[in-house]
Design brief:
Blueprint (H helix, E strand, L loop, with lengths): L1 H15 L23 H7 L9 E4 L12 E3 L5 H7 L9 E9 L17 H11 L3 E9 L4 H15 L4 E5 L2 E11 L7 E10 L5 E11 L2 E9 H6 L7 H11 L1
Antiparallel strand pairs: 1-3, 2-5, 3-4, 4-9, 5-6, 6-7, 7-8, 8-9
């Protein structure tokens, strides 16, 4: 069925996708010119871990994520902060950084799972495929900065939304992508400053893959969240960055 090629294309987007858009939130405490970055060890203790978010698994191995910024390239330098945030990399020149992959626990199978293949209609098969892939994956990144660099980095992300709203080309782990549009959406309002955005990328058969991003500044540390849900991307159903993940990470940074 034609849709299956769109599924495969969207899967490629999930693995290496980049796409986004944003909305600035309220300003709070500033990082300050005398702010000190967290050490690498402190940052690793500050990022969410297995058991911190009910209903989600946390993988700190990094095996699914870019190893460094060298594996994330934006076709336009001004859009680089967005590209880095999508790859779980620090959006600015950080003193320390770390990232994890947070995966929603598998949902219970639908009624079609108990039917034999010959009893399934084409619609049933497509529903089964999309249902099987209906779970959110969120790349959570933390990066910490000295002085006022966290504030400047956050501003670079905000500015990039305006200047990169029409999209931009990126290369993620050797795979070329094209972000075709960026749209602002409401942020969680957590931390001292927060921005939220969606990004659209082209897939096969004219399909469009939509992913969601939030960037939050907590003093001298910046948290980035990049969320995708392959099943909902395929069906164009709405979803967002899981509030439970943001809340759990925010709690560990207080």
């Amino acid at each position: 069925m034609k849709r299956s090629s769109g599924v495969r294309a969207a899967a490629t987007v999930v693995v290496s996708a980049l796409s986004l858009a944003l909305v600035t939130g309220c300003g709070g405490d500033s990082g300050g010119s005398d702010a000190k970055a967290l050490s690498a060890a402190e940052l690793k203790k500050s990022i969410i871990a297995q058991g911190d978010v009910e209903g989600y698994k946390v993988d700190a191995s990094g095996k699914q994520l870019p190893k460094s910024k060298d594996q994330v390239k934006s076709g336009e330098e001004k859009c680089a902060p967005l590209a880095y945030a999508m790859g779980g990399q620090a959006p600015g020149e950080a003193a320390s950084e770390t990232s994890v992959m947070v995966t929603q626990d598998k949902k219970k199978p639908t009624d079609t799972a108990s039917k034999s293949l010959e009893d399934l209609s084409e619609s049933d098969i497509e529903d089964s495929i999309t249902s099987a892939m209906d779970m959110t994956l969120t790349v959570v990144g933390l990066s910490s900065y000295d002085g006022d660099s966290a504030e400047k980095t956050f501003k670079s992300v905000s500015d990039a939304v305006q200047s990169c709203s029409g999209g931009f080309p990126v290369t993620m782990q050797g795979t070329d992508q094209k972000v075709t549009g960026i749209a602002a959406e409401k942020a969680s309002g957590s931390g001292d400053e927060s921005v939220g955005f969606t990004a659209k990328s082209d897939a096969e058969d004219g399909d469009v893959a939509t992913t969601h991003v939030e960037v939050v500044r907590h003093g001298s540390t910046i948290a980035t969240y990049y969320t995708m849900n392959l099943g909902l991307m395929i069906t164009d159903k709405p979803y967002d960055v899981p509030a439970a993940v943001i809340d759990a990470q925010t709690a560990k940074l207080k």
